[in-house]
Structures are given as structure tokens and as C-alpha cells.
């Protein structure tokens, strides 16, 4: 953030200032994941479009858009949703790379330097945060998968 907003309370101007400096980090951290998700979704959708239940839906006379969006896409989303549960800690890793390249003062370079000087307490704290994010991400992914797929029940 700008020096005049460093210790200022949160306001609309401070929010806009933070966005002005964080958009490159968000872009760097997110673009790689989008490309991977597109490839996985394409492969899963092609597999599901050749499945028996899609052929049956087409034989019943459903429109092609209904076959794709009601039958093929929900089943193709399973691997994407489950992978997103593990992505939460990797977002911090992408932030580390962006913060080092763009020389942005964040917590990620502190984690990197604690690994370099073998500070086990700081490194352990960051690893604990990574573990909590991984568990939370998997829990959120399981809940979303239960909402998307009616075959999955919580009981």
C-alpha cells in the first residue's frame, strides 16, 4: 500500500489503493491454475460426452445444451472441485513468487527467509497455516461437491 495508508484505518480509498498494488499478485497466482482447470475440464467433458448416460439422454430427445449442462458438466466438475480443495495453500506459494519478483512486502518472503536461515519456529508456524488451509480447502470442496452432486450424501 501507499505510505499514507500504511497505518490508516480501513476506508474505501485504502481498499482501492490496496487493489491497485495487489492485482499483479492475483494475476500471477491465478493464471496458471486457470489453464490447468481448462485442460482437465476439457478432458473430463470429452470423456463424459461419450458415456452411456449421455447417449441415453440424447436418445430420449433432450436438446444438446440440456444434455451437456444437466448431465455431462456436473459429472465433469468432480475432479475440478476436488483439486480446488488442495489449491488454497498453493495460492500462498504463488504469492511468494510474485512478492519476490515484484518486491512487495508480504509474509511470503518472511517464510522464505525463515526457511533459508532454518528458523524452525517461524517455518513451523507457516507450515501449520498451510496445513490448516489444506484441511479447510478440502472440507469446503467436499461440501461443494455434496451440493453439486445429488448422489453424494453427508450421512
TrEMBL record:
Keywords: Cell membrane, Membrane, Transmembrane, Transmembrane helix, Transport. CDD domains: TM_PBP2. It comes from the Bacteria. Gene3D superfamilies: MetI-like. It holds the Pfam family BPD_transp_1. It comes from Candidatus Thermofonsia Clade 3 bacterium. This is ABC transporter permease. The chain crosses the membrane at residues 18-35, 100-121, 127-148.
Amino acid at each position: 500500500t501507499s505510505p499514507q495508508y500504511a497505518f490508516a484505518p480501513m476506508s474505501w480509498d485504502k481498499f482501492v489503493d490496496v487493489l491497485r498494488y495487489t492485482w499483479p499478485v492475483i494475476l500471477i497466482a491465478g493464471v496458471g491454475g486457470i489453464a490447468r482447470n481448462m485442460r482437465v475440464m476439457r478432458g473430463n467433458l470429452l470423456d463424459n460426452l461419450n458415456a452411456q448416460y449421455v447417449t441415453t439422454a440424447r436418445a430420449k430427445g433432450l436438446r444438446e445444451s440440456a444434455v451437456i449442462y444437466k448431465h455431462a458438466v456436473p459429472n465433469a466438475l468432480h475432479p475440478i472441485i476436488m483439486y480446488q480443495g488442495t489449491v488454497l495453500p498453493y495460492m500462498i506459494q504463488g504469492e511468494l513468487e510474485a512478492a519476490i519478483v515484484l518486491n512487495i512486502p508480504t509474509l511470503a518472503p518472511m517464510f522464505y527467509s525463515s526457511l533459508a536461515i532454518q528458523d524452525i519456529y517461524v517455518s513451523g508456524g507457516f507450515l501449520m497455516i498451510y496445513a490448516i488451509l489444506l484441511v479447510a480447502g478440502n472440507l469446503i470442496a467436499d461440501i461443494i461437491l455434496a451440493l453439486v452432486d445429488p448422489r453424494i450424501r453427508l450421512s
